[in-house]
Amino acid sequence: MACCVAVIGKDNSPLYIRVSNPETELYLHFTVHSSLDVVEERVNSLAKSSVGDIRELYLGLLYSSETHRVYGYATNTKVKFIIVLDVSRVQNVNENELRSMFRRIHSAYADAICNPFYIPGDQIDSTKFEAIISEILL
Amino acid sequence: MFQAGGNSDEGLFDYLHMELVSTLLQPERNPGIHLSISTMEHLGFSSGYRLVERLTREWPRFKDELDSMKFICKEFWTAVFRKQVDNLRTNRQGVYVLQDNRFRHLAKVSTSGQYMEAAPKLVVFTCGLVRGALANLGIVSVVTAEVSAMPICKFQVQIQRASA
Fold it and tell me: Is B1 a member of any domain?
């Protein structure tokens, strides 16, 4: 469903980034990186607001262009997950579906971090994590 | 330690911690293992770092530093020690004191003060645990512990501000 999934670390360094179509790779990398400012802006504004239920980890649509829609999610540990959807392939986007996609990435990420051989801050290199991302990219 | 399971896995954490402390106290028993206080703190750090990643998964976003601190006192402490921190105090300038009146790793030690010099070795893992958890939440800190009478332990967390 998604055409790109990215995990960005605390210090905005990419921990994991994968695209479904290698031809668009450069453009999608650019899209993901340029969305990070929007993530930061949104996290800061959400932290200030006192209303309880918008302190959700899911950040919603970050921005959309003619060809792609970018969705974001930021964990409590300041790690960001970005999903990019191809507008031509996905017409109706279901918010709940996106939430569950992000939740799956988050639990896969937590599992990968809990691997004692993983050094925090390194690129994620885990077959289980890879498998979950492949399912989301389909 | 990680899940609210039966009594058996609770005991496992205690036994593992006891073995670590005993290796630290009597290095001649395991000549092949070089464990020092700072390695022990580092073990705590990486456990805390990883554990908090899992525990905050279903948690709403933290508003501020105090919110994260409360999380450590309640959820984090409950997950690790099956109880909450008894008292949290702060001077609002980056120093927090977490007091546990019956700290799990000291609860089974004699209150007479006989083992007072072993106290640092019993609490250093937890210092690392708290420091690691806070580090993953984006708070850089120095954690020290103070034991004045046996089952009571005070952890002092000093937040390192980026500007300072």
Answer: no
Q: By three-state DSSP, how is residue B139 classified?
A: coil
Measured CB to CB, residues of chain B less than 8 Å from chain A are: 46, 49-54, 56-57, 59-64, 136-138
Average pLDDT in the B115-144 region?
93
Alpha carbon of A66: minimum distance to chain B alpha carbons (Å): 31
Nearest-by-Cβ selection for A46 from B46, B53, B61? B61
- Determine, for residues B53 and A77 on separate chains, whether the beta-carbon distance falls below 8 Å: yes
Does residue B132 lie within any of the structural domains?
A: yes
- The CATH number that applies at residue A51 is 3.30.450.70
In a domain, B121, yes or no: yes
Nearest by CB to residue A113, choosing from B53, B59, B138, is B53
How many domains is chain A built from? 1
Please indicate whether, in this complex, the C-beta atoms of B61 and A110 are within 8 angstroms of each other.
no
ipTM score of complex? 0.84
Expressed as residue numbers, the domain containing B137 is 11-159
**C-alpha distances out from residue A60 to A70, A72, A93, B46, Å:** 9, 6, 11, 31
d(CA A27, CA A70): 13
The CATH number that applies at residue B70 is 3.30.1380.20
Pair of tokens at residue A23: 């031809």
Number of domains in chain B: 1
Q: What is the pTM of this model?
A: 0.87
**B53 to A114: CB separation less than 8 angstroms, yes or no:** yes
What is the residue range of A22's domain? 2-137
C-beta atoms of A78 and B138 within 8 A: yes
Q: Are A104 and A112 in contact (CB under 8 A)?
A: no
- Would you say residue B26 lies in a domain? yes
A-to-B residue pairs, Cβ atoms closer than 8 angstroms: 51
Among A2, A20, A6, A3, smallest CA distance to A82 is for A6
**Structure confidence by residue, pLDDT tens digits, B62-106:** 888 899 999 999 999 999 999 999 999 999 888 999 999 999 999
